[in-house]
Fold each of these.
Amino acid sequence: MKDKMIATQYDGKVLTEIAGFSISQLVAEHGSPVYLYDAETIRQRCRDLQMFETVRFAQKACSNLSILALLKEQGIVVDAVSAGEVLRALAVGYSATSDPPEIVYTSDIFDRDALQVVAEHHIHCNLGSPDMIPQLAEVQPGAEITLRINPGFGHGHSQKTNTGGPQSKHGIWHEQLPSCLAQAKACGLKVVGLHMHIGSGTDLEHLAQVCEAMERCARLVGPTLKTISAGGGLPTVYRAGQQGMDLAQYHRLWDEVRNRLAADFGHPIGLELEPGRYLVAESGYLLTEIRAVKKMGDNLFYLVDAGFNNLARPILYGAYHPMAICPVGQRTSNTNHDVVVGGPLCESGDIFTQEDGGVVSRRSLPAAQVGDLLVIGCTGAYGAVMASNYNSKPLAAEIMLDRGELRIIRHKQTLEDLIANERSALETVTR
Ligand code: LLP
């Protein structure tokens, strides 16, 4: 099977079609900005991971119900970090009580909503703080639980996505595992799982270090252990020069750990992987229209109608996304220019071409004029889910291309939707 379109093939170029659909026609029909997903790319990424017996999608990366339903069809189970994410998983038919559980709640706290939803639906919990142990025991007496361990080190594509080590709020500090095991026992909970996630956008070298830490912790838990989870963090190639990961080698490392534990404990040990980005990043595109082209000193700006209200990764992490131009009118030039790409928001940081720390950078993009479209690629993970209504901008529509068909998977928020809640509150107060 031919591999799907990858970022490095279209970055800095002209792009007119995605999965056989005309980009300009999609925008003409669905408006701009709009998030587009190519279902076949998601299926391909699921196939890449099929050597892992349980792949648990970290839905925080892209929790649209239609994306979850597609992943469910591929045999992927799901992680949830909030009451809302549990409800999303239930809404597409994931079962809470299967073995292994199709839904796991992973967090470092139970807010009141989460505790209630977890209790009501008997959701298996992966606890990232010691205080969660008695809180869960109260609502799920006798439950089986997983403990999320912070192994004392972490790594991510940005310091903000590093989830291990003493500066991270995530997980139970590895030295506290024995006391948490005792506490769980005293509360009547049974520790059957261990989980480690050291960060997002990391690499094989750092991920491999987790194997050893996991094995050490697993021996402290002993034979009640049924499952180990390697967490997520698998990298995605956003730009030329970045390395993908040797998945077979990664699987081999974990398989060896699990086999050694199984031999020692005398029963099989389940192995889970918990990727978010890897499964969905490359499937997504943010399509946006160029509404102004202007010069500021030496800088040429393309200003588009999507901003960090739609895609926050560049302003938050200086994240690089591949970009292409889809000309709508007659192309007047075939040359590329070094440009700065910005959005519509009333804030200087609303720049898609920036590095960590907010340094504005330039990108080589084809000549474009007002009305042409900018395609921002690899936006399927941590794109639409991190959108906001800042500057009172409505959330964009999301559409999915699948086997030659197009489906709207989230309707564009209307301007009236934006203010309806407050309008009714205003009316209540003034009545
Ligand atoms: N498991 C846990 C417990 C996590 O906290 C995360 C991500 C994942 C799995 C999935 O990690 P992934 O495979 O996607 O790297 N907004 C940031 C990423 C934040 C990740 C938060 N946790 C970004 O846009 O890069």
Note: The radius of gyration is 23 Å.
Amino acid sequence: MSTLPVEAIRVLADRHPKPSSLKFQYGTAGFRTLGNSLDSVMFRVGILAGLRSKKLDGKTIGVMVTASHNPEADNGVKLVDPRGEMLEAAWEGHATVLANAPSTDAFLEALEGFVKAAKIDLSKPSKVVYARDTRPSGPALVAALEDGFKALNVDARNAGVTTTPILHYLVRSINTKGTKDAYGEDSEEGYINKISTAFKKLVAGKPASPPLIIDCANGVGAKAAAEFAKVLGDALPITLVNTDTTTPGVLNHQCGADFVKTQQKLPPSLASHLKPGQRACSLDGDADRLMYFYLDERGQFHMLDGDKIAALVAAFIVELVKAAGLEEKVRVGIVQTAYANGGSTKYLTERLPVKCVPTGVKHLHHAAEHYDVGVYFEANGHGTVLFSPETQRILAEHQPSTPAQSTAITHLINIVQVINQTVGDALSDMLLVEVVLAHKSYNGYEWDSLYEDLPNRLVKVVVPDRTIFKTEDAERRLVSPPGLQARIDDLVRKYASGRAFVRPSGTEDVVRVYAEARVRAQADELAFRVAGIVYDETGADPTQRPAEFL
Ligand code: 16G
Ligand code: MG
């Protein structure tokens, strides 16, 4: 094919018309909105994925249909680039343009213009691997996506119903198959085997830990978690909760990682399972976020979020690197966002290089690539650890001079295998955490004691136009609307250990306010006062002003 198969595209495109009233945007997490309005987007993404593959010389591109932690009625779609990372930023704009072409004719015209401008050689092959989560809107959306593949004659592999991180793993495994960078066997089974084999080696000889409770958010993670439970057996006793992927309405409802993080409380469904001192964790709806928590002796809930995971994991890796005699050659660094708790930033900066970047996995991932070992986590539980190619070579080739060094290197090599380096992966991260807890003989309480979280509060403000909010300094300061940051600064100064920032959401039509302070009541008050300022500034309807905004 050296020109676009215009007729084939036209016939199929007519079956997936764009709803005239809707405007779509490829945002931080791809296209995401109500599942029943995404039909045309899916069809067009199918074609775009094929073009992306052609542009990259026939490398396999991933397509994931999911809306993650969002309500069950939502759905979404995102593209995965050949090494398993997020779609290159420039193509987000192309995706948005194509998705918004008002008619079949306009879509064809935009497509032809794009192929020309991006210099896509249509004679190249195109390969895609795709998957979906358990949402009820998934099958119909996948059918629309498949029409897109058909229109461009894409060689498409259906990975079925699986987690977002497994799809990322598959993309990387397919593209590296048979090369020196081979990532793993390109199947779900290959993924489970790779990770669980390394996990078992890492915990061999350690005393068996009490069962870990996993809240699967009634989502797609339940399936992979059950596979892990089976394969791991006594190496990690697991109790699965919230595994119902068929009852309508239960996905992410009163459970899951986002519920735990935003509500800062125990999912009610876990109350009868969790005993004081026992640790548990929650996945989100597509299993790329992880939250740990435990109840103390008094039954009080304690959350161990992405920041606590980063601190635990980074400290352990640094220890192993030292024990291996590699501290001069392998530098460990951390990447966080403005949402990182001030307590964690203080703890980590006293020990390691820490970089703060804007929200969104692509920013964290790219920044982490600059370290030999880059540990990145968002407070919301999304994150992973990246080992640079050079670091992996050093680990493979280093000649240890003592048995202790040799053990440390073997542990590091196995840790690389446990971690899904393509993207944050709740299940792989969970096993990494379990390795560290087993090695350190930590329970939840001991882990939690690494540092103390500052009380914090997140508030949403609905404004007429969130695009007037512009930030700098990794979203920690506002440059627009003018004058607003100075008012926030004046306020923050009045609070002990106070910090607050305002940023427009990348996934919802709202502005988010984050505040923290030494005591709970002050963190709440600061958040509501900043929210009040934001609300007043934007000319939003005063009669709609939420009562708690001070
Ligand atoms: C998306 C991002 C997540 C980010 C969140 C922020 C990816 C894969 N996911 O879920 O990293 O924390 O958006 O949402 O990049 P917000 O912009 O609405 O606050
Ligand atoms: Mg998710």
Note: The CA atoms of residues 133 and 162 lie 6 Å apart.
Amino acid sequence: MMKYFIGNWKMFGTPKSLSILNKVNYFISRDKNKKKYKVIITPPFTLIQTFVDHFKNKKISIGAQNSYQKEKFSSDTGAISPFMIRSVGAKYTLIGHSDNRKEGDTDKILKDKVKFASKNNLKIIFCIGENKFQKNKKKTFSVLKKQLMNVLEKKLIDNIIIAYEPIWSIGTGKIPSKNELTKSTIFIKSIVKKMLKKKTPIVLYGGSVDENSVNLFKQIKEIDGFLIGGASKSSKKFIDIIKNYYT
Ligand code: PGA
């Protein structure tokens, strides 16, 4: 099965940061495992065009971190549509990251974001996850189910990847236990299978993934890859995550 290593740069980077990705690209090009995985980077909007041009025909694909809930052009100041993202050559977009949910993205908005992104042929990395309070109340499964049910539609079958990111784990160094994470991943896969009628849904894990924690995560064969925040800004850490995954 193909694995995914996705680097979410958040609010980080200038054109000079290309040097980080050049090192990652060099590593991949010589890696004996390179056929087994895909590397995708989601830089801020300001860098998409530069990175797409630079990595054309290379090993790194580029995506956006968010995509607006309207299709093409509108009068919403600051908004960037999926049409605009696709027009500069990005192939992927994150949708539903907890940072954006916190800022007001509801399930209804997310459903539109996903719909229009898919219409514009973007592959969607749809982020879901429970917060600490919900986890303590043992509501994890019901929260995840609702987040999926309210947004997914059957016609997204080929365009959607799920990233399970427990909010309490993002940027905190706290990670779920192997048992917990195995169960949630299997649970998410069962829901997606049913909803999309897809035999092999792709489910990634995100939240404090680094060169050390990956050694635990790699033991869970149900996980199809990772959404990596902090550690993706360092070429060394990002490369070590891939290396450690395969050793
Ligand atoms: P983190 O972020 O790896 O820094 O925890 C993950 C994310 O927010 O996607």
Note: Strands lie at 3-8, 37-42, 60-64, 92-95, 123-128, 160-164, 203-206, 225-228.
Amino acid sequence: MLYIFGHKNPDTDSVVSAIGWAFFKEKKKEKAKAFRLGKLNEETKFALKEFKVPFPPLLKKSQNKKVCLVDHNEFQQSIDDIKSAKIVEIIDHHKINLSLNEPIFVLTKPYGSTSTIIAEIFFQEKIKIPQSIAGILLCGILSDTLIFSSPTTTEIDKKVARKLAKIAKIKDIKLFGKKLLEKKS
Ligand code: MN
Ligand code: MN
């Protein structure tokens, strides 16, 4: 089984991209499950509840497990025993700082969120995204880009967000984004 998780002190992008990627793996008939490395913040809880997605379980150990890191690639940001895990995949939108002993699957793009990278793969591979997954991935984009206002925002983030909003039946992206980001405080 593949254990998929984002960084410590999880934010919305790290949690929903793990869930999105686990769903993608499921579609590919691969055994995978999403986890979190810490307490969910109020914004993330709101996002998951809004689209009726269950909270991912807490992962305490990664020793000897096959893992996929999403939304981070530095060991300090990962689970404490990450050096004893078998990292097989990394999907991230941050600066890459890797030193690995083996070739692995690494997917990075300079987008505003990991959720954008994952949603784009669904679209490219023409895999149908259910409303719930579309909704939470949209939350990942809105959260990381601060509703497209952060300097990391790209045109792809906006385009992907519009497509996701349509599937998630969110009519007013900015209004929904405000409701989401309000929960942070
Ligand atoms: Mn993050
Ligand atoms: Mn992120």
Note: The chain has six helices and five strands.
